[in-house]
Amino acid sequence: MPSPKQPTSPDDRQLYKVFISSTYIDNEDRRKIVQDAITMAGMVWHGMEIFAASTRPTVEECVRYVKEADVLVGIIAWRYGW
Fold first, then answer.
1. Global pTM?
2. Dihedral of the CA atoms 62, 58, 30, 78 (nearest 10)?
3. How far is the C-alpha of 7 from the C-alpha of 66, rounded, in Å?
C-alpha cells in the first residue's frame, strides 16, 4: 500500500469529513460545541442538520453519510434514539 502524500502546504491537507451521531433534542447544545470544534480543526462536519428531504428512510441516509465520513463522533446522553 503506498504511503499517503504528505502535505507540502496548508492547502494540501486532506479535508476530513466527520459525521456527528446523537439524539437531537437533549444534545442540541453539545452538538453545536462539537460542530464548532470540528470546524475550528479544519474539518467538515455532517449531521442530521444538513439532511434534505428524501424518500429514503432516515436510517439509510445516516448510514450513507457515515460511509462517506472519515470519522464518526457519537454523543451519548440520556435519551433513547435510533
1. 0.73
2. -110
3. 25
